[in-house]
Design goal:
Layout: H1 3-11, H2 25-38, H3 51-60, H4 66-79, H5 83-89, H6 91-97, H7 104-122, H8 130-134, H9 141-152, H10 161-169, H11 178-188, H12 197-207
């Protein structure tokens, strides 16, 4: 290295990538107030009949659409709505029912293993803690959060691709990965909105704040959004 290059390398600052500044508490409250006004009781779009079928449906929904999962599980849940009934069907039959879903072979294997563990360790009941849920085959943090929220009424923030995108675009909980966003939502979302927060964010991301072509012209948060992805003034 020449003397000039050496001197230059000492002078130039290192490039730093900073995440967007989080929105103010008042701004976050306004966002969720508008969500609640527009849709007071948001619901998840997976069909289920009890905590067990909810758990299975969420496991199957990884890398699949809720519409696709519902089509595949409609007949399955009619004949197998408990771990015992699902286990009695066997992996081959479960696989045939969910064949239209991505990764159906692995998912069928996980569903059967999940049923075996529920029966052996939890009396056939869906556990009510995140650690116990995550001990089940095919169940990760997001799936556990969904089940805890919907089946047991806990305030959790399940971060999927839609929640991740919307939380960053609206600066509710900027983060570089899903865990950062989840922890950011825990701090940012007022408790009164906590139960439904992830549903509002999912639905907003799925139907309005889309990844490639966000429908900003009909967004109820248009005047609050300063995302570089925004398509209209």
């Amino acid at each position: 290295m020449t003397q000039e290059n050496s001197r230059t390398s000492r002078v130039l600052p290192k490039a730093r990538i900073t995440k967007p500044r989080a929105r103010s508490a008042a701004g976050v409250r306004e966002i969720f107030t508008r969500f609640r006004t527009a849709n007071p009781e948001p619901k998840g779009e997976l069909d289920y009949v009890n905590p067990f079928t909810l758990l299975v449906a969420v496991v199957l929904s990884a890398q699949a659409t809720d519409v696709g999962v519902n089509k595949a599980t409609r007949k399955l849940f009619e004949i197998a709505d408990t771990p015992q009934k699902m286990l009695a069907l066997g992996e081959d039959v479960v696989r045939d029912h969910i064949r239209t879903i991505g990764l159906f072979r692995t998912k069928a294997r996980n569903v059967i293993a999940l049923c075996e563990k529920l029966i052996a360790e939890f009396d056939g009941q869906v556990p009510t803690t995140r650690a116990e849920l995550e001990s089940l085959p095919g169940v990760g943090r997001k799936t556990a959060n969904v089940v805890l929220n919907i089946a047991f009424g806990e305030i959790t923030h399940a971060v999927d691709t839609h929640v991740f995108r919307v939380a960053n675009r609206l600066r509710i909980a900027p983060g570089k990965n899903v865990l950062e966003v989840e922890l950011g939502l825990e701090k940012a979302v007022p408790a009164e909105f906590g139960r439904h927060a992830h549903h509002w964010l999912i639905l907003h991301g799925r139907y309005t704040c889309k990844a490639l072509r966000p429908e900003c012209e009909r967004c109820l948060l248009n005047d609050l959004c300063d995302s570089p992805d925004k398509r209209v003034a």
